Amino acid sequence: MADYIIVGGGIYGCAVAWELAKRGADVQLLEAKTIASGASGGLGERGVRANGRDLRELPLMRLAYDIWPTLHEQIGGFTGYRRLGHLQLIEREEDLARAPAQVWLQNQQGVESRLLDAAQTRGLEPQLSEDVIAAIYCPNDGVADHSATTRSMAKAARAQGAVIQENARVTGMARRGERVVSLSVEIDGSPVDVPVGERIILLSNAHVGAFVAEYLGLELPIWRMLPQVMALRADIPPPMRRLIGHAHRTLAIKPLPDGRVMVSGGWRGRWDETTGRGQPVAEQVEGNRLEAVAVYPALADLAVDEVYTDRAEMVSIDGIPIIDALPGADNMLVGVGWSGHGWAIAPTVARLLAEWALSGRRPGLLAPFGYGRFFDRPQRRREHRENPRSR
Ligand SMILES: Cc1cc2nc3c(=O)[nH]c(=O)nc-3n(C[C@H](O)[C@H](O)[C@H](O)COP(=O)(O)OP(=O)(O)OC[C@H]3O[C@@H](n4cnc5c(N)ncnc54)[C@H](O)[C@@H]3O)c2cc1C
């Protein structure tokens, strides 16, 4: 019996496994498919960005700035982390009006930020459209190779003694009182009962909502989204050097190491019941491409090489994750609802989750992410649990 059972082999599960195992804990990770087969894998790179992030996540991102540059040394594996800097582009006067406040706030949180005028912005990115009038620049933001990092993290966890099991799908759980005592798991298709020693840490992203509803009778205010990512083929050098975001357009752009340009930012696919996967939608693909062309006109000549919408992510109603022990399962920690920006903060959150799992005390930096924030008073939280559909 392992003391710590982790469900999910994405970046969160693998990083918590590594953090626990290197502190000497006895860890078993259960992954339904293969490592990085969910939101932590797939095309291109992920942004490691503080610029424009929710205030409550900025302290986590500030710590992540210190972890990312040497993470490859710590885990002895490739992360592809590159500190490119991030520009949040501004085209509208109303966005320019609020920009100094955002710059001030981010600097207060230790996130170096500068407001650049049009000439300074074009000095950094000469091929930008003339419509860009300013930008908020965070020089310490960057990108990482998410698939490689997640696999490196799993390997590092194994090297520290963690047992990482692929093709191990969690299908149920048994409790004694308020404690989870075992999990029902299908390992390579065969049913197995996996006992829980100390704690379970549920980090299975798209699976968490339905699982918690079925076994704890709790409703979490989260839902599934299918973010779209595409790569444009570039016969020319990518026209941008940095990670690009935008104050009002739904847009993120990255120059990829293979010379292509990655375009994303919040466009969506649709769920296909027949294939059981997210499928791209033509208008969404074209909408995203046109947003990119609007700020980098040189992208107009680039063809769409690949598009994917098959990596599901859970979004929470207030745009930040739920990281907590839930009522009815005192020895279970849950992290879910990363809302499309969970990558960058993962090394920080994983460290804090491991400390919480070992000490039994919630680290102060995770206090803003408690499940209790959705309830007007503790009594409601109990009522909700006893009769979740009554409110
Ligand atoms: C297209 C896209 C672009 C993104 N871009 C960015 C970005 O630029 N910057 C940023 O900060 N964030 C970004 N994110 C968000 C970030 O990638 C995610 O928040 C993060 O990867 C979530 O990690 P995870 O480990 O929680 O989930 P996942 O990687 O989804 O891992 C969960 C794992 O649980 C497994 N699982 C599911 N059910 C079970 C079960 N029953 N039993 C066992 N295992 C199970 C799954 O197979 C999966 O491997 C993006 C997300 C997507 C999808």
C-alpha end-to-end distance: 39 Å
Low-pLDDT parts are none
Fourth-tier CATH superfamily name of the largest domain:
FAD/NAD(P)-binding domain
Largest β sheet strand count, sense and barrel closure: 8 strands, mixed
Structural class, from helix and strand content?
alpha+beta
Helical run tally: 9
Bound small molecules, by name, code or SMILES, are: flavin-adenine dinucleotide
Examine the coordinates and then state which fold CATH places here, giving the name of the CATH topology of the largest domain: FAD/NAD(P)-binding domain
Count every beta strand, where a strand is a DSSP E run of 2 or more residues: 22
Strand proportion, as a percent range, falls in: 25-35%
Helix content: 25-40%
User: How does the overall form come out from the CA principal axes?
Assistant: globular
Radius of gyration: 21 Å
The number of domains = 2
CATH class of the largest domain equals: Alpha Beta
CATH architecture of the largest domain: 3-Layer(bba) Sandwich
